[in-house]
């Protein structure tokens, strides 16, 4: 067991973890952050995407111990949803019907936030390339792309 | 008739944002894998690496002594309490159906079959211990591929004596729905056109994004199962029927379910094993599959060899169609496995007026993952075959593919139309859908560009593909299912309850997994009952909340479940009217109901439905003889399928030097009758399109000759990404063909995109290179296959496939080993 200390969605947390434990397993099993989900075992699907120090990572591809001393933001910490707030990207996904079953959605939203942080005014092509690492089986991507472009059009999009 | 006719349709047709989304976009979700119960144990499955083998011994000692392992069980440790995975649709009385144990004790029949289960305190510890289970196998020869299976040399299940499971035949001459197809073919050989082709429907994997997961809690009087399933009601029925636990002791919950596409329309070994382990240990257990396990052991779809003969006169008017399917069931006949290709039997004649039709389907068993429904289930395969053939016929006659369709389709004046397969299509307008799609697509302009590129010998050639599809959906009239020997009905159930404070609880037996029922059903009830959209709460997916239902598949939820809702709402209004008349001291005949309120005609007196709900709760003043409730249940059994249709047009660019293909434009005009929520409909179409396009271009489940799945991860099974796809042009006819067999006039849309798009894409790819002597490319149309097709004869000669007949090994439209 290795002791780690990190900040997750604004809260300081500390745990002893097995060195092999993945960040996504830590988030789900130790912290109950079940908004972040596991869709594959080969880091293809991106459903587990979170931000590590402000940059999107597939949390199945990061060990929990690698997050020691760092800051993690999950879909649950993106906006103060308990107060009814939504991040503009979350709002855009609802507005543009960018989700159906919603399983890929947390990862899609986190990836889109990072994408727009780097490139606030992307073209459709840039959105398609930027979201390539996140798989969706329901939407055919049409409305996901539209959602990201819609979010970009709205003001105040920040990572 | 209740006074519901003049109610304004404020909600139906509105692009309401979904009620489901708030929780899904914020991660406040209840996927099955999110459920954790006190003392819960975790399961890991030990799976056979061999496609066919006798299990000679299972040594669990090392695994049992691994840290925090509670027990390890193999097939011989279970008795009848383990139950069985059922086949609900034996397609013929003499169907060969191998016994399907969730965990066989003696012999495995596909690579990935479960031979033991490890139970431990954590999932990681269970998986660690699973590695320590030592299973000795005696490997048996495995049969892989349809053509090998048909030879009956190597048997998937030696005790059955054959790999042939069932032969299902429909003949329009014998059924009296048409004439003799063989005679039409003979005539056409002499005086007309005969097109003979063999098409391969490759095996696909549904690949829902949420891996399957199951939690079983035996604590308390009832045993509760949460499962990532499309079919909680059927699951409860099958658990009771096969494990001996009464239905009344079983509660099945499908919480948030992350996609299904038919792939979660199954009763799975994993569910049955979790059930048995929880009952044995009397502790809650959870099993969540890995993606690799999902791809290997969750059911696959499609997988047919289609042998097709189309007869036509010299003008391209079709005179007969003969279809022979060989369909791979995989290792077992899954819940509706054998029935899937039979669902296609009624659709090969599609939108056309064929006078003669014969259909045969031979199902075969192989040592591969079992197959079952995948989005469209039988109908995409049928649509692919006929729409590819119609393009071939157009090429033979030398006319535009749209022209050949027009010569054969049912015109809008001819509805209702009874087809050669015996179905009655109620409404449709193929001319209107085609005209609108054609205009939106810019058909003529793209044809001009195609001609220019051909003229100048452009390296990148343009092809235009057409698919004018229809489908039968809204599964299904129960009597029809009975006549096909299906083991259940096709009705749906709904309840409408009014709470004391005037909110509306709607209970449906449909079980959504991404479709947006909570939103669309709220719209229907809001309109019909005249209450605010926000006041309607749709409850589903829990057999204790929604005790009756037949779940969600086959584009049935709206057209069957929605109609049950309508009937329940109408009953509520009828009941409320009695109370309203009493409280208003008026004659019921003098009451009008509109906008959620009864008013006395010619006065300003009225009672809102919410007031009546409160009055019913109080019970202080109500008429003699009235039962003190406004709540109502309804069950609806459809009288017919419904028949959405549409014209899909696809433009593909093909790089003739590399074989790479690129989608340039895709337009579809679907006529689906009344649209409840255009936003949700568009989403269904987009997603359906990409699944169909993916079959045409990318996806294929491949087993090697030993029966090992070699496309067993998302590295190898090519789900499309946002970078592979384009934005689509989705339109609808201005004056849709309203369905006449349900009140709302709706037709199903969940599968339409998938059914229609595959042939549109392949037709486009073939059209781009037809002038180079190509008349078929096997799916998925990879750059290699496209390049090989182009260079098979370097564009100089017609392909050997143009000769007829050509149903032999090595013909051009098969890859080496196709179907093998």
From TrEMBL, chain A:
SUPFAM superfamilies: 2Fe-2S ferredoxin-like, CO dehydrogenase ISP C-domain like
Domain 2Fe-2S ferredoxin-type intervals: 2-78
The UniProt record lists the keyword Membrane: no
Record keywords, A-Z: 2Fe-2S, Iron, Iron-sulfur, Metal-binding, Oxidoreductase
Pfam families reported in the protein's UniProt record: Fer2 (PF00111), Fer2_2 (PF01799)
Name of the protein: (2Fe-2S)-binding protein
Organism: Nocardioides baculatus
Organism taxonomic ancestry: Bacteria, Bacillati, Actinomycetota, Actinomycetes, Propionibacteriales
From TrEMBL, chain B:
UniProtKB keywords: Molybdenum, Oxidoreductase
InterPro entries per UniProt: Ald_Oxase/Xan_DH_a/b (IPR000674), Ald_Oxase/Xan_DH_a/b_sf (IPR036856), Ald_Oxase/xanthine_DH-like (IPR016208), AldOxase/xan_DH_MoCoBD1 (IPR008274), AldOxase/xan_DH_MoCoBD2 (IPR046867), AldOxase/xan_DH_Mopterin-bd_sf (IPR037165)
Keyword hit for Oxidoreductase: yes
Residue ranges of every copy of the Aldehyde oxidase/xanthine dehydrogenase a/b hammerhead domain listed in the record: 26-141
Keyword Oxidoreductase recorded: yes
Region ranges (Disordered): 1-21, 797-820
Superkingdom, natural source: Bacteria
Compositionally biased spans, kind Basic and acidic residues: 8-21
Name this polypeptide is given: Xanthine dehydrogenase family protein molybdopterin-binding subunit
Organism encoding this protein: Nocardioides baculatus
Native organism taxonomy: Bacteria, Bacillati, Actinomycetota, Actinomycetes, Propionibacteriales
């Amino acid at each position: 067991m290795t002791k780690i200390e990190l900040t997750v969605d604004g809260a300081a947390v500390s745990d002893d973890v097995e060195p092999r434990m993945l960040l996504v397993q830590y988030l789900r099993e130790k912290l109950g952050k079940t908004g972040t989900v596991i869709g594959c075992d080969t880091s293809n699907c991106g459903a587990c995407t979170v931000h590590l120090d402000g940059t999107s990572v597939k949390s199945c591809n990061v060990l929990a111990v690698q997050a020691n001393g760092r800051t993690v933001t999950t879909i649950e910490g993106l906006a103060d949803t308990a107060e009814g707030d939504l991040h503009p990207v979350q709002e855009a996904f609802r507005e543009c019907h960018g989700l159906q079953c919603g399983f890929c959605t947390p990862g899609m939203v986190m990836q889109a936030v990072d994408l727009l942080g780097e490139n606030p005014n992307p073209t459709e092509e840039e959105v398609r390339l930027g979201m390539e690492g996140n798989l969706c089986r329901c939407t055919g991507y049409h409305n996901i792309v539209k959602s990201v472009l819609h979010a970009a059009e709205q003001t105040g999009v920040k990572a | 008739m209740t006074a519901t006719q003049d109610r304004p349709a404020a909600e139906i047709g509105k692009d309401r944002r979904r009620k489901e989304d708030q929780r899904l976009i914020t991660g406040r979700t209840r996927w099955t894998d999110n459920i954790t119960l006190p003392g819960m144990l975790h399961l890991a499955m030990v799976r056979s690496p061999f496609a066919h083998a006798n299990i000679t011994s299972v040594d669990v000692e090392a695994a049992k002594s691994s840290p925090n392992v509670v027990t390890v069980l193999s097939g011989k440790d279970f008795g009848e309490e383990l139950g069985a995975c059922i086949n609900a649709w034996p397609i013929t009385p003499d169907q060969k159906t191998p016994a399907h144990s969730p965990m066989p004790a003696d012999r495995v029949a596909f690579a990935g079959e479960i031979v033991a289960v490890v139970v431990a305190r954590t999932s990681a510890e269970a998986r660690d211990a699973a590695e320590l289970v030592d299973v000795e196998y005696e490997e048996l020869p495995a049969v892989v591929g349809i053509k090998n299976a048909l030879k009956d040399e190597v048997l998937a299940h030696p005790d059955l004596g054959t790999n042939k499971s069932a032969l299902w035949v429909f003949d329009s001459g014998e059924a009296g729905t048409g004439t003799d197809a063989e005679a039409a073919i003979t005539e056409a050989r002499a005086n007309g056109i005969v097109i003979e082709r063999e098409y391969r429907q490759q095996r696909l994997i549904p690949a829902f994004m949420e891996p399957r997961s199951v939690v079983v809690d035996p604590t308390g009087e009832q045993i509760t199962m949460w499962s990532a399933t499309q079919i909680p009601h059927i699951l409860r029925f099958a658990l009771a029927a096969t494990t001996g636990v009464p239905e009344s002791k079983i509660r099945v919950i499908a919480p948030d379910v992350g996609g299904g596409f038919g792939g979660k329309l199954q009763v799975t070994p994993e569910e049955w094993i979790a059930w048995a382990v929880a009952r044995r240990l009397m502790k809650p257990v959870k099993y969540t599959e890995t993606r690799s396990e999902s791809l290997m052991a969750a059911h696959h779809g499609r997988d047919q060899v289609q042998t097709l003969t189309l007869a036509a006169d010299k003008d391209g008017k079709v005179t007969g169609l003969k279809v022979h399917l060989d369909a791979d069931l995989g290792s077992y006949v899954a819940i509706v496995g054998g029935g899937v290709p039979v669902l296609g039997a009624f659709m090969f004649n599609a939108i056309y007026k064929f006078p003669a039709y014969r259909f045969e389907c031979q199902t075969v068993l192989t040592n591969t993952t079992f197959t079952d429904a995948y989005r469209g289930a039988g109908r995409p395969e049928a649509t692919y075959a006929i729409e590819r053939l119609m393009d071939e016929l157009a090429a033979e006659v030398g006319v535009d593919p749209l022209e050949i369709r027009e010569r054969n389709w049912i015109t809008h004046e001819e509805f209702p139309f009874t087809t050669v397969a015996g179905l009655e299509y109620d409404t449709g307008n193929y001319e209107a859908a085609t005209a609108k799609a054609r205009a939106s697509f810019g058909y003529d302009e793209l044809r001009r560009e195609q001609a220019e590129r051909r003229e100048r010998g452009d390296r990148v050639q343009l092809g235009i593909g057409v698919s004018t599809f229809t489908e039968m959906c809204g599964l299904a009239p129960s009597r029809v299912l009975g006549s096909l020997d299906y083991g259940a009905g096709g009705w749906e159930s709904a309840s409408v309850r009014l709470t004391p404070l005037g909110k509306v609880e709607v209970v449906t037996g449909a079980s959504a997994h991404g479709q947006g029922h909570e939103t669309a059903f709220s719209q229907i009830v809001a309109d019909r009952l005249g209450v605010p959209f926000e006041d309607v709460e749709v409850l589903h997916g829990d057999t204790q909340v929604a005790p009756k239902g037949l779940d969600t598949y086959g584009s049935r939820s709206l057209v069957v479940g929605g109609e049950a809702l309508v009937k329940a709402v109408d009953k509520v209004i009828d009941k409320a009217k009695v109370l309203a008349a009493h409280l208003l001291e008026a004659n019921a005949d003098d009451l009008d109901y509109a906008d959620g309120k009864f008013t006395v005609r010619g006065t300003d007196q009225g009672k809102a439905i919410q007031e009546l709900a409160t009055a019913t709760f109080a019970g202080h003043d109500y008429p003699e003889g009235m039962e003190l409730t406004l709540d109502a249940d309804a069950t609806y059994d459809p009288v017919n399928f419904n028949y959405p249709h549409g014209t899909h047009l696809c433009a593909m660019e093909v790089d003739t030097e590399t074989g790479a293909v690129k989608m340039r434009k895709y337009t579809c005009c679907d006529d689906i009758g009344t649209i409840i929520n255009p936003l949700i409909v568009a989403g269904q179409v987009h997603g359906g399109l990409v699944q169909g396009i993916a079959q045409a271009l990318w996806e294929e489940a491949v087993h090697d000759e030993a029966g090992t799945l070699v496309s067993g991860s998302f590295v190898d099974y090519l789900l499309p990404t946002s970078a592979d796809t384009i934005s689509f042009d989705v339109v609808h006819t201005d004056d849709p063909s309203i369905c006449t067999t349900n009140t709302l006039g709706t037709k199903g849309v969940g599968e339409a995109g998938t059914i229609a798009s595959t042939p549109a894409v392949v037709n486009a790819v073939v059209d781009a290179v037809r002038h180079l002597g190509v008349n078929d490319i096997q799916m998925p149309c990879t750059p290699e296959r496209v390049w090989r097709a182009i260079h098979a004869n370097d564009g100089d000669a017609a392909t050997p496939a143009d000769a007829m007949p050509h149903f032999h090994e090595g013909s051009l439209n098969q890859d080496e080993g196709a179907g093998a």
